[in-house]
Write a structure and sequence with these properties.
alpha/beta; six-stranded mixed sheet; 14 helices; about 55% helix
Amino acid sequence: MATLPLLVVATLRLSRAVRPKMRRVQQEIATMNTVLQENLSGIRVVKAFAREPHQIEAFEKASAGFLNAQLAAVQARALHSPAIDFIGGVGMVAVLWYGGFEVTRGSLSVGDFIAFTIYMTMLLQPIRMLGFLVGNAEQAIAAGGRIFEILETVPDIRNAPDAVPLGKVEGRVEFSQVSFSYDGNQPVLCDIDVTIEPGTIVALVGEAGSGKSTLVNLIPRFYDPSAGAVKIDGIDVRKVTLESLRRQVGIIPQEPFIFSTSIRENIAFGREDAPFELIVEAAKRAQLHDFIVSLEKGYDTVVGERGIGLSGGQKQRLAIARALVTDPRILILDDSFSSLDTETERRIHVALASVLEGRTCFIIAHRLSTVQAADLVLVMKDGRIVQRGTHEELLAQEGPYRKIVEAQLEGETVREEAV
């Protein structure tokens, strides 16, 4: 028992030495996995630019970092674990020396001595395992620390304590003196003040980085404004639950995410109880039905990871169908027609005409054909609305909108002449 204080000291030193090294091991594993995941996800880009040697080198560098961190951790355990064994061994030597001396004096029988030695051996075995267990425990603590760091992260966007469900809405959207900044310093939106009546189709135009996507992302509360308020039917979106709010908003992103499941499940993702007839109807309105039925398994066809078996236009039409299934009162199309040819876009506009009736729709658009169909055009520049009105009204006055239209028409003329 006299060696136990030494064992405690050795164990504490082992713990202090191993923990930071195991934490570094976990960080290096994360780095290595990130490089691996990016290489696998972007394998087409890597091959297209013949960058295989460079990416192999990057992975080898990340692997070397993990190897060095692991070796450092193993070295720390290798230096301290034998110390624990040595201290336990010192106790055994002391027992053998003193017990043997007592046997020679006749104060202790050989049987008692052997029994005591066996007990001592049984005691030392768990002590020898202590070094091994401490190392494993430190590894678990380092890994657990990273896991709990994620689990305990409090989202910036969450339900308020007094949030209430948002019922069926008409679709009036109001931006009241809204400003926003991602980092708290550089403003992205400045004093946006506009009210969109239910059933209005709004086109947002402007240069890249003017704040169009940021503005519409405030509606489903992907972000909260730094100042001002976003209201739906006069209710601040921060006062309602996120789930009920986002059920009222359909989003068709510029780069839709397609799950590696069947086409039916992808379309019905926002509404799992959607009947098959509704799924087919949504696909028809998105001009995707004919393509689906031409497949061998039709709506039960499983698409590859991220929709690798679909073209860019087919992915966007699938995303449109997915949004239509949820029957949202507010619809956001974030440049959703960018991957469509002109004829398909025209057909979708015709099909959506009846769907959009009575719904508030925000369209981030660059094509003139999309803007012309809007009831209201908002021209954005440097995070501000610099012009608003219909296509005809804005075209009749000097300003950024006319320049955008003229530049687009000029580009189309150049392309036609080139053909």
